[in-house]
Design goal:
alpha/beta, Rossmann fold, five-stranded parallel sheet, 9 helices, 8 strands, globular, binds adenosine monophosphate
Length: 219
Amino acid sequence: MRLILLGPPGSGKGTQASLLSIEYNIPSISTGDILRRSIEAQEELGLKAKKYMDEGALVPDELVIEVVKSRLTKSDCKRGFILDGFPRTIAQAEALGSLLNSLECPIHAVINIDVKDEVVIERLSGRRISRNCNQVYHTVYSPPRKTGICDNCGGTLYQRDDDKPEAIKKRLQVYAIQTTPLIRYYQEKGNLISINGDREINEIYEDIVKSLDLLETER
Ligand code: AMP
C-alpha cells in the first residue's frame, strides 16, 4: 500500500500516519520529522531548512525532494509507505510522480484530511511535545498529569517554534496557497479520498481504513 496524507498543519496527519503504519505494516515517512531530526543533528540539510521552518515557510522543493528520493529507495519501502507532509507543492508532486513511475510503483490513494482553520489554530497552539520520547500532549484536550512534564518518560515538554501564533498563521496561508492546489491535482488523477478530520481520532481512522478497503475491492 502506497499512500499520501494531505491536510493542513494540525489536521492529525501524523497521528493517522502512525496508526496506518501499524495497520499495514509499512513505514510512515514525515518530511517534517526528518528535517527536525536533521536540525537536531546539526547536519547541513537541517541548517539550511531551519530558517524556513521557524517562520512557518516551506523548505525549498529541491532540498525536500532529495530527502524523499533517498528515503523511498530504502528497502523498507518495498512493501509500501505512507507519506506524511509530502508533497506540499505541485513541483514536489510531479517529482514524486516521476520517481514512482520509474520505480513502477504508483500511489494507491491520496487521503485528504479536511479540517477548518479555527480547529487547526486551537489544536496547534495547545500542542506540547516531550523532548525525550516525542509523546504529543494538548494543554486542554490531553494534558499531562503534571504541567510541563511527560507522563511517559518524565522529560520536559516543549512547544515547537512553528506552533507559536505568528508561525501558525503563516503555515495556514502557505498551505492555502501552495498545497491546496494538490487536492485538485490528485482529484483529477482519480485517487483522492476526502475525510472529515474534525472528529475523534478513532472515527477518522476507521473511516480511512473503510475507504481504503473499498478501494481495494473495487480494483
Ligand atoms: P510538519 O511537521 O509536516 O508540519 O512540517 C514542519 C515544517 O517542515 C513545515 O512548516 C515546513 O517548513 C517543513 N516541511 C515539511 N515538509 C515539507 C515539504 N514537503 N516541503 C517543504 N517544507 C516542508
